[in-house]
Protein 1
Amino acid sequence: MTTQDVIQVQGLEKSYKDLRVLRGVDFTVARGSIFALLGSNGAGKTTVVKILSTLLKAETGTARVHGYDVATQAADVRESISLTGQFAAVDEILTGRENLVLVARLRHLKNPGKIANDLLERFSLTDAGARKASTYSGGMRRRLDIAMSLIGSPPVIFLDEPTTGLDPQARIEVWQAVRELADHGTTVLLTTQYLDEAEQLADRIAILHQGRIIVNGTLAELKQLLPPAKVEYIEKQPTLEDVFLALVGADGKDGDAGKHHIAVTSEGPR
């Protein structure tokens, strides 16, 4: 651990009756970095986030967030963090701007309107700011949710599986928003079960399996755990994501492939 470690976790253990979910979890997260906690469903990722955000108490071990102990200084921890769960917590009756203004007022901040306008611009939602959140796409709704989490400028943000249920295009929108967080100096702890998400976003990746961190390092360090790759010449076929983005475009408009009629027969595309 160093003074640059904003999150410090040692020996966390947690059980639900006879089920041991965490069996001694250890990791640190550096200031201003994106740290991915990667694991399958039931691995304990959400339990870790709940402990770090003071929603649960660990049975054993210690954790500090932004210099505060999560068990004995819970109020200070809560003032230092923001938590975005697996589903966007926006009020669909309100417009995007009204959602932001409401949170700013609840936090007793000055100039809530300016705060809302700045965040709408930062997350490319200005044109949709006057529309009800119920009309937003999944990606837009999630970006608004993250924007709401940033009101008050918390130094640490927890994103618990932020792209669950989103289509490929919406996932890319959320990835861009997460990168923006780190670019502005926010420390991000991201839980995910998607390998490509961790690969795309994280400065460091920890794999949580059966309640323990089994490996923790940069993507390059993790790749070194496997034997050196063999060089083979193969025909690379486009992935389904390549096809999707080529057809619809990254911005939702027709891509290059979408400008041409593609006919598919039993003999293949023509």
Protein 2
Amino acid sequence: MQWSLYLLILMGQCCLFTCRLYEYHFIKENKSWSEAQTYCREKYTDLAKVFDMTDMSRLRNSTQNQGEAWIGLNNNTGGNRTWRWSLPGVEYIHNDSSWNLNGRYGTEPGPGNCGRKRDKLVDVSCHHPMWFICYDEKKKDNKKLYLIEEKKNWTQAQNYCRYNHTDLASGLDQVDGEEMKALITTTFSAWVGLFRDSWRWSDGSNSSFRYWDMELFNDEQSNKTCAMTLLNRSGKWSSDECDKEKPFFCYDDKLILIKENKTWKEALDYCRESHRGLVSITNLQEQGWVQDKAKNASSPFVWLGLRYSCTLDLWFWVNDKLVCYEKWSREGKTEDCGRAVGMMRGGQYEWVSQRDNETYNFVCFK
């Protein structure tokens, strides 16, 4: 088969490919949240975590139950609120220059827990109605950000962006970037995807995805510190007292971080011999799941199963998939022989092409 035809076939199929990086399991037994947590850790990996709406669909499709069920989110942090970005996989990194220093920001007590953007970021009450900025990863006409001139509170704006685009604008590269400056002026303010809360996932993951049912959820109810999904209300979430007994969702992780420094070829051989292969990433959701492994690495990068082919003059995944999704650092894409991709173990977990004889940790499919 000619390479041009072969590539066309792959390009038509690559974005339909989805790796099973994890599995959800619905457990019908009624247990308290902590009992459910213990059960999941013994039988699987942990209580279920959720990165985005794709995960929510998979969670709901794993059962026919229509009641309440525990998930792995809890608010047992003593009220310690942390800033997060709405878009899954984008880590919050504080930068003084991005904030209005005349107002409250960061971990200090402020007037609200959602971020608006004008010339600078300010935290205000999430209930204010204002315009907002959506991010769309589809890159229509090379455009990623969209100003929505409808007044909504932060949660309503988030729901709109997730339904019509990808999410609220998230990350300082978007919020402080040139495209944002072209959209917004100092004459008005707009919501961006910044919020803070005190909720944490049972397995310690950084997922900032929240799916609260705002008609039922009250973040000030100090005695209701464990999250549940309401399967009879589109799977949206609320909270309850942790000693209540309910069925629950576990997840089973299909990824493993190998904390041994190996060259890319050695990592490839190890994963093929001991597991199912070096990890590939074909969408934002999978990026988030791999990031949660990379953060625990003992090397500055972790190898992914992405390599540059001098023969074909393209990047390819070792499972024969073309690159459907990319997260290159600004100067990290070097197309040259003997290059493979390492994901940063922190920051924005961006991809950087590395000489394949460098030695790093790596992530395998189990």
Protein 3
Amino acid sequence: MSKWSTADLPDQTGRTIIVTGANSGLGAATARALSEAGARVILACRDTAKAERVAAGMPGRTEVRQLDLANLNSVRSFTDEIERVDVLINNAGVMALPLRRTADGFEMQFGTNHLGHFALTNLLLDRVTDRVVTVSSVAHRIGKINLADPNWEQRGYDRWLAYGQSKLANLMFAYELQRRLAGEGSAVISVAAHPGYAATELMSHTESVQDAIMWLGNRAFAQNAAQGALPTLFAATADVVPGAFYGPDGFLGLRGNPGLAGSAPTARDREVAAELWELSEKLCGLI
């Protein structure tokens, strides 16, 4: 597993794979590799014009469809048009933004990274045949799920703690989804992945001096998007452990080839995960 690369991707001919946020960065690298392996790839993106330009450079069968994870009406419209999908890759995300709110009033990072994908997955799950891959981050370790105030309405906003909460929510969702699928005897599995430290556009939208700092970090330390996408590609196509978490196998999980990744003890808290699931269902209008 330690030397796994895109050369090891199994043939994906005949499979349909949805990649959210596939118009740039990790999502584009993921979609491109899957397209090259023969999959029909649906690029689910808010910026469809940009996605069309990215898709035009892919060799296989691709489709671009509009999906704004910060708008639950958009999520519902997208899922209404999907008949069948083998793999859903919950990749899209925003990071360290100033305080903003989604169309439904959620804090933007929690609303986009977690709630948008939570709704998307649950609305599509009866049409998924193989697996759901949810992309988290090493930043889940700084996160804490505040069930009383997940949308930062009653406390001072901290952009990085909000990001950490959203990525911890992603990981807890992936683990809880696997428990529920297994409990139902479903053949569908849930897997999580993280890219380590990868240079992408995600790190250039803090609208602060931190953009310049992260640009320097990208230049000096980060691996490229294609390398950062490998854990997601492994999780989406390889013979994986259901409910596992995959990431780079190098120092601190920041670089390297795909391997099993460790997670913070908070990510394994089943009681909080169940409560987060129930809260997410309520916020997304799924109950």
